[in-house]
Amino acid sequence: MSEDKISGIVRYLKSKISTVPDIGIVCGSGLGGLADTLTDAITIKYSEMKSLGFPQPTVAGHKGELVFGVLHGKRVVCMKGRFHYYEGNDPATVGLPIRVMAALGIRILLVTNASGGVNPSYNVGDCMIIKDHICFLGLAGIHPLVGTNDARFGPRFPPVGSSVFDKRLQQVLLKTGVEINFTHPLHIGVYGAVSGPSYETPHEIQLIRTVGGDAVGMSTAFEVLTAAHASLPVLGLACITNRCLGPNDNWEAPSHQEVLGAISNCQDDVKELVSSFVKNVDLTDYPRTKAYDYFTKYLESTKDQGIAKLAVVAGVAAMCAMFLFRGRK
């Protein structure tokens, strides 16, 4: 029987790297420069894994690379280029790289994104630590965990909330912001996840405000839900790139050009914040997931089986050669 998709991808990546990563980082729009700061870097393009079933990016600005390396003494894997539902990907495909990173051994996951400011007090250039999310797609049944449960990662009904959006990691990031004199306001709020690719109508923004959303975006939630299933603690950071327009607001509606300009203006500061967080975070109390244990044992066992099969084939070939040699005498 052929190997399943995740096992094949993990096997391929393990053949390329010699260490086990501790931190996974999903680099949001314009924030892929963090990967350029890694030492001992190994870059693996998504295109190398296309035949194995790894999804391919279609959004401009999303490079499509996994970069493994060291940052402040910690082993990190950066995902440069994420996947979105609006690209035509199913929710499980959006979450697949998170499962791959969990199987490779990461202890915590950091997800960053560019978001619209729903909270009227948020301004362009602010940042928001995600304390919770409202996944409108998930509530409607569009969810990465729909279908047969993959028990290699977690249970049928995983908890989501404070057990996933880790408060200790949030506190480390807040303290890091003070330590480096981070010049952007650093809020703590709720992320509203929508489908896109269109921006929201004024009354949709009003709805998100009414139910408690502070920022809105078209990514992140499926990644977090996949992490929750694997019991991966998550730190979420949203960069506010535009002010969302509600029915009674008197500012301009958002545009993609505005978003890109805002990202350009804050990306170096956010890169420093995330880099310093990696330096400060203590991973002692964050074990590797059960998925890591499973895939480590599985790949070792199938490797031994492969060696045994090669030995049998070699033995049969030797016997055939011996009989052929005798027949020529």
Structure characterization notes:
It is a single chain. This protein has 329 residues and is of the alpha/beta class. The chain has one domain: Rossmann fold, CATH 3.40.50. It contains eight helices and nine strands. The chain has a five-stranded mixed beta barrel with strand order 5-8-7-6-9. Strand 7, helix 5 and strand 8 form a beta-alpha-beta unit. About 4% of the residues have low confidence.
- How would the global form be characterised? globular
Number of contiguous helices: 8
Tell me the CATH topology.
Rossmann fold
- Decide which structural class fits the backbone: alpha/beta
Work out the strand percent: 15-25%
What's the level 1 CATH class?
Alpha Beta
Helix/strand order, N-terminal first? HEEEEHEEHHEHEHEHH
End-to-end distance, in Å?
42 Å
Biggest β-sheet description: 5 strands, mixed, barrel
The stretches of 5 or more residues where confidence is low (pLDDT under 50) are 305-318
Count of the separate structural domains: 1
Q: Supply the CATH superfamily name.
A: Nucleoside phosphorylase domain
| Average pLDDT figure | 90
Major sheet: order of its strands? 5-8-7-6-9
Helix content: 25-40%
Oligomer: single chain
